[in-house]
Design goal:
This protein is 49% helix and 17% strand. By secondary structure, the chain is of the alpha+beta class. Strands 1-3-2 form a 3-stranded antiparallel β-sheet, with helices on both faces. A hairpin with a 2-residue loop joins β5 and β6 (133-138). The radius of gyration is 19 Å and the shape is globular.
Length: 203
């Protein structure tokens, strides 16, 4: 089968970035250079179209809807990239990054560990080990998807604009970070907001 066709199919079918090694296995080749040439050809063919192929750090490739078009068609489709609870966790990370995992768990509950795993598998969140916990931040893919600079200030500004235009408001009410003697206190009303549900709920 045509190698370029297989590479295109894999990129289209994957809901997360595809690395060189995965493409090599799919194309049954040991040559990373051959894979790069095939993907570069595809990138050129998709240039100027609604869907594009972007190269990410670490030799990864991702096929996506162009960010400038995503906003225009979002209201006409019911397809959701992620469950609501996972989106809220992603929004919290994006707004308060870099944020310790322990802090996020205090804000979003124990189910946030599962949600973070989903976000990492999608390539939207990265973690870095620091001491006894990990520090979370959004990835370059996240920034590329929204077409903003990959800095905490630029991403926070984006979220503020989204909220101002009537977007997801839960991020504003997710938590109030209060540091007391080096610890983070969870907002008292969080349990009430969750309707008394356990922290493992998808909210």
């Amino acid at each position: 089968m045509d190698s370029k066709l297989v590479a295109e199919a894999l990129l289209f079918a994957s809901d997360k970035p595809v690395d060189i090694k995965t493409l090599q296995r799919a194309l049954r080749t040991r040559s990373p250079e051959k894979v790069r040439k095939i993907v570069e050809t595809l990138k050129n063919e998709y240039s100027g179209r609604a869907v594009e192929i972007v190269e990410l750090d670490g030799g990864r490739y991702y096929m996506r809807l162009r960010p400038d078009l995503a906003a225009q068609v979002k209201k006409y489709t019911r397809r959701k990239m992620l469950p609501h609870g996972v989106l809220k966790t992603l929004a919290t990370i994006a707004y308060y990054q870099p944020i310790p995992l322990s802090t996020l768990a205090a804000i979003r509950g124990k189910d946030s560990y599962r949600q973070i795993k989903i976000l990492q598998e999608r390539g939207l969140v990265e973690s870095e080990k620091k001491g006894r916990t990990s520090v979370l931040r959004t990835s370059r893919l996240f920034a590329d998807f929204f077409g903003v600079e990959n800095t905490p200030s630029a991403i926070k500004s984006l979220i503020d604009k989204m909220l101002a235009s009537g977007g997801e408001t839960s991020i504003k009410h997710a938590s109030t970070l209060k540091k007391q003697n080096g610890s983070v206190a969870q907002r008292p009303s969080q349990t009430q907001k969750d309707g008394g549900k356990s922290s493992s709920s998808e909210g």
